[in-house]
Amino acid sequence: MSKEINNESRGDTVVFETLTVRREGAILFAEIAAPPMNLLGPELVRDLVSLIQRAEADDTVQVLVFKSADPDYFISHVDVTRIKENREEAAKLTGDASIGQLLRHLSASRLVTIAQIEGRVRGVGSEFALACDMRFAARESAIFGQFEPAFGVIPGAGAAQHLARLMGRARALEVMLSAEDYDAELAAAYGWINRALPASELGDFVSSLAHRIASFPAAGQVVVKERVNAIALAPVEDIRRDSDLFIEGVRSREFQERMQAAMKRGFQTRDAEMPLARMLADLYDR
Amino acid sequence: MSKEINNESRGDTVVFETLTVRREGAILFAEIAAPPMNLLGPELVRDLVSLIQRAEADDTVQVLVFKSADPDYFISHVDVTRIKENREEAAKLTGDASIGQLLRHLSASRLVTIAQIEGRVRGVGSEFALACDMRFAARESAIFGQFEPAFGVIPGAGAAQHLARLMGRARALEVMLSAEDYDAELAAAYGWINRALPASELGDFVSSLAHRIASFPAAGQVVVKERVNAIALAPVEDIRRDSDLFIEGVRSREFQERMQAAMKRGFQTRDAEMPLARMLADLYDR
Amino acid sequence: MSKEINNESRGDTVVFETLTVRREGAILFAEIAAPPMNLLGPELVRDLVSLIQRAEADDTVQVLVFKSADPDYFISHVDVTRIKENREEAAKLTGDASIGQLLRHLSASRLVTIAQIEGRVRGVGSEFALACDMRFAARESAIFGQFEPAFGVIPGAGAAQHLARLMGRARALEVMLSAEDYDAELAAAYGWINRALPASELGDFVSSLAHRIASFPAAGQVVVKERVNAIALAPVEDIRRDSDLFIEGVRSREFQERMQAAMKRGFQTRDAEMPLARMLADLYDR
């Protein structure tokens, strides 16, 4: 792929197993396609690691835009049956077997990253969006959830760190402890995302913003990111601590029991998860 | 009361002098009733200490909801004639004679706390709400004020710590230095509260949220609270420092003179305080 | 001027070269008038230093309100041809040759400062507003921009520090990396300003707020500012570091080339800069 990424002509497209990457000038538009519902599994982690490594190695790449090929799911959440494999793939980027460190690497990268969000963004999907430098969401379709506490665990890849800093103590606690779904308007009001936009304008807005940013010098962007990250990005140790606490929680009997109940209700299946927040409230109801 | 709190049947109610506590499953709904205007005096502090101690000692209690029996006042503010007694009662919870430390204890508790706010929430009333994990307010009736600087003192129980972290430097300074009244919409826009809701929906919303949270494992909630508090809750020393500065200020001649003038205008009386922000602007006008 | 500032009668006015200062009780209303477009040059820096020194030396001054005589420009940005002279003037206040330290001095001052904003507030103009304790802007006319990264440099006088703390990582990065213009509504939604108000109400609102604050004891205001600043104001070293990084960037070839292109497009001229954000996107277009 390095050849294609280095190619500056318009419209070049490279296809990974779970990502389709199109280049326009200094911008890579990466479309996530991991059917049936864009779960974060080891194939997607592996492709993200490759994309990040190649983009960072290519000085002519300046901006990375992520969107989804699935109108209902941006990234649904982690594939809970493959947490161990995910972590092994993530370790190839940072040496640390943790999705949280992979995402923190992305936040600290010289690349400017933008999430263009339609559909559901829950669990590690939300954490992926939070790790991007900016995130814009479709008013009509985007749905956000940080539902891990419904299973008795803290989010494992940095959500508590990001949310507490972005929206303050009370709203961060509400979002996580309620495990509720939040629409784009409320997510914007809480600072979870930069802005909610009409779906019909979202693509053009993000593309135009990406091109604008790519027209400015990369050197200054690196400095701005470093200085802002020094204030507002969680330290590596805190990301690691949350990751460890998540893994501890996943091993608990309570998590396992709840996950079994959820699986019986259709957790990790496309249709059943559309109204996930409701499912979580009724886990043991029938 | 421990017997009743441990009783899991629905609808159990326990009456303290200034609190009526009803239990539903793992939730305690505590209604504040300290007529004539829900001032924070030693009876209410004592009852809060009891409630917190008993709820924390009972593993089957998970969520604590606070609301007011008075539609016009949630907690009006501290009874300025009884600051010393308040602090002595507060010391029974933490060993520290400070309302700020009592409130910080509540924020750090394993219990999930929700403030359901109608009416006025000023001074330590606002600080009580800020110490809760979440706060939702009635659009039509809730009024917020952190008016201590009108008397020349810093808020004594953590407001500066919470507000600076929740709404940033400029809005926190505005709120305190103006000593103004803020309605629920503006309080929500500033991040003072989680959300403003129509009064007709507030009770059902909070009850439903409390039941939802209570249906999730307590263990994960403790971890989430610990990690968020590590980022966003003020250190004990800063709460203590603000408390000391408040007490210093209260002893000043300027505070005493202004308080005398306010008392002549009806400070600490129900009707005169309804438009308190206006009274503060006219202290010496007649 | 000290005589006039000490004079407590209403309506006293003192004229500096670039500031007209009117006194009402404990309030100084300073109107910025540095035609043709309120660039920050050494005259304005010198006058600001004088004003701050005299106001701080006069115990009867409590509140400082800044507004502009130019409806289209509050402070447009730094005069890029006079950065060195600006820094020399700034050094007279703090000993540190940096506009950032001058502004931080203002933020840490015992004086309560309010920016009343109509027109454009870009670059160091935004940083000046951010250094004030509060800022209110006209919905119809105020425009905010932190466009330095369009020239490959970080803002030099504290914007990254303020914005990251006020609006969080994602919005701060968006604002700076996009170098876009933001209207007052969006600036308020992001926390850049306290509130957006109709232009017809702005003056009365700010004046009334200033008089209200000035009617309260100065001693308590000092304590509140100190405690809030301890949480939310950037350390001196971080302001200095950003200032150094800015100066490094200004010396780069890339900055110089872009600035030359901008000058050809009318940068630092009144009419051409009205739509500055658009100019920045088209620097090399013709």
Mean pLDDT of chain A: 95
Described by strand count, sense and barrel closure, the largest sheet of chain A is:
7 strands, mixed
Structural class estimated from helices and strands of chain A: alpha/beta
Give the % helix of chain A.
40-55%
Multimeric state: homotrimer
SSE order of chain A = HEEEHEEHHEEHEEHEHEHHHHHH
Spatial order of the strands forming the largest sheet of chain A:
1-2-3-4-6-8-11
Content of β-strand of chain A: 15-25%
Could you list the spans of chain A in which at least 5 consecutive residues all have pLDDT below 50?
A: 1-10
Radius of gyration of chain A: 18 Å
**How many separate helices of chain A?**
13
Number of strands of chain A: 11
Q: Report the end-to-end length of chain A measured between terminal Cα atoms.
A: 50 Å
- Largest protein interface? A-B, 38 and 34 residues
Shape of chain A: globular
In short:
Chain A contains 13 helices and 11 strands.
Description:
- The structure is a homotrimer of 286-residue chains.
- Chain A is of the alpha/beta class and 286 residues long.
- Helix content of chain A is 51%, strand content 16%.
- Chain A has 13 helices and eleven strands.
- Chain A has helices at residues 2-6, 42-57, 83-94, 99-108, 124-131, 159-178, 184-190, 199-214, 218-232, 236-250, 253-264, 270-273, 276-281; strands spanning 12-15, 19-24, 27-32, 63-68, 73-75, 112-117, 120-122, 134-138, 143-145, 182-183, 195-197.
- In chain A, the strands form two sheets. In chain A, strands 1-2-3-4-6-8-11 form a seven-stranded mixed β-sheet, sandwiched between helices. In chain A, strands 5-7-9-10 form a four-stranded mixed β-sheet.
- In chain A, β1 (12-15) and β2 (19-24) form a beta hairpin.
- The longest helix of chain A has 20 residues, at 159-178.
- Chain A is globular and about 55 Å long.
- The relative contact order of chain A is 0.13.
- Chains in contact: A-B, A-C, B-C.
- Chain A binds chain C through residues 107, 112, 130, 132-135, 162, 165-167, 188, 191, 193-194, 209, 212-213, 215-217, 219-221, 223-225, 227-233, and chain C through 148-154, 160-161, 163-165, 167-174, 176-180, 189, 234, 238, 241-242, 245, 249, 252, 254-255, 258, 280-281.
